[in-house]
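Figure 3 (text version): structure tokens given as input.
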């Protein structure tokens, strides 16, 4: 569920990453060509844009340097119904923020 609860953990605990992901998923397909594969990264353009914003946020929080290519590789490891939760949590970790033990399972 985008923007809601994933596995009982509020995505807002992983801000600003959860909001970046939520916005990207909510708006995918609204811009012409944003679902087309990026020529270099071979993922949809909206994913590249989202990963760029996530990398910038991680770097701004002191968790960098995080490159776009590294963030795209990280994004590819997040799958399943809890995709937004996994990606936001992993970005949160990269930024050096602690996560309560019960939320890592």
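Below: residues designed for each position.
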């Amino acid at each position: 569920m985008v923007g809601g609860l994933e596995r009982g953990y509020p995505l807002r605990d992983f801000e600003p990453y959860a909001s970046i992901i939520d916005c990207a998923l909510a708006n995918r397909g609204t811009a012409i060509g944003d679902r087309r594969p990026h020529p270099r990264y071979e993922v949809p353009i909206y994913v590249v844009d989202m990963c760029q914003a996530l990398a910038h946020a991680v770097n701004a929080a002191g968790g960098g340097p995080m490159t776009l290519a590294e963030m795209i590789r990280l994004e590819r490891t997040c799958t399943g119904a809890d995709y937004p939760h996994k990606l936001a949590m992993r970005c949160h970790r990269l930024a050096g923020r602690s996560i309560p033990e019960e939320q890592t399972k």
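The chain has one domain: 5-97.
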